[in-house]
Amino acid sequence: MKLLWDSALGLLVVTGGLLGLTLPFGKLATAAGVPAMVWAFVISLGAGGVLLLALLLRGQGVALTPHRLRYFLITAAVSYAFPNLLMFSAIPHLGAGYTGIMFTLSPVITLVFSILLGVRRPNMLGVAGIAVGFVGAVMVAVTRGEAGQPAEFIWVAVGLLIPVSLAAGNIYRTVDWPEGTGPIELAVGSHLASATMLLAGILALFGVTAFAPLGEVSLVAAGQMASASAMFVFFFRLQAVGGPVYLSQIGYVAAAVGLFAGTIFLGEHYQLLTWAGAVIITAGVFITTKAQNQTSPKAQSQAA
Question: How far is it, in rounded angstroms, from Cα 304 to Cα 301?
């Protein structure tokens, strides 16, 4: 365990793998009739609750200030509630593997936002990476999900909004990080804020009966909550050991887990063009990562 705790590569594989499990778990849950909003609530409540318990056992807590409350609410909406709602809504239409590919676009879109907002100046390598990633995204988008089951373009658009939301969250978390606050404390506050938002939405739109289908997938729900809370523990350790640029690569691992789990265990099938597009997106992200390595530490932090 000590060897894993100090290994950036090991932490990357474990963190990305745990993130990737969200995709097949989400497909199993939504197939059983669990609303997307309820499953997103399960993740936020599980991660926030377990991490809060860990803080309390260490004699710590979550201090509330106006700045932290703002951070919790905005991060909850942009980084957790909204992208998870999009993801679990799209999975039944696009497949777990196809939806997972969307994670790989997050670093590229984060770089685009950084350039548009003037956080950093573009260089030729960064522009090339964005262009390559865009080509790959177009290739994946035109296949419209599983082979022989093309989804409506509206669901492809929903899938593409996932990395946009994640990228916006990456930028916001960096520029508005409350000074003197640890990452686990921020994760607890943000996840519990996300759970609160989602619970309010569930009760307003569906009522308590929306939770009934969870009984059919209780083991899957337990596995999802355990993997989500463990993922965030390794996530913050990876951020400390590998840095923000290395951290951004968990999307590759998550996408690979989603693609192979969907193909091997869930019976999903994808066109060759989908697989080729995924490879090209990965190449684009490697190029943008290389471009980020050529910038200052401050600029790198924007692309986490």
Answer: 6
Whether 234 and 121 have beta carbons less than 8 Å apart is answered as no
Q: How far apart are CA 186 and CA 69, in angstroms?
A: 10
Q: Which helix (DSSP H) or strand (DSSP E) does residue 107 occupy?
A: helix 106-116
Instruction: Count CB-CB contacts under 10 A for residue 299.
Output: 17
- Rounded to whole angstroms, the Cα distance separating 210 from 268 reads 27
First-to-final CA distance of the chain: 25
Could you tell me how many helices (H) and strands (E) the chain has, helices first? 14, 0
Looking at residue 297, its pLDDT comes to 45
Helix axes 272-293, 124-143, angle to 10 degrees: 160
Q: pTM for this structure?
A: 0.84
pLDDT tens across 26-72, in order? 999 999 999 999 999 999 999 999 889 988 998 888 888 999 999 99
For residues 20 and 214, what is the distance between their CA atoms, to the nearest angstrom?
21
The separation between CA 225 and the C-alpha centre of its own chain, rounded to angstroms, equals: 15
Query: What pLDDT, in 10s, does the model give residues 30-39?
Result: 999 999 999 9
Question: What phi, psi does 98 have (nearest 5°)?
Answer: -65, -45
SS3 at position 6:
coil
Between CA 288 and CA 124 the distance in angstroms is: 10
Distances (CA, A) of 14 to 3, 117, 140, 232, 273: 13, 33, 26, 11, 28
Over its C-alpha atoms, the chain yields an Rg (Å, rounded) of 18
pLDDT tens digits for 164-176? Answer: 998 898 888 878 8
Q: Per-domain residue ranges for the chain? A: 2-301
The Cα–Cα gap between 107 and 104 comes to 7
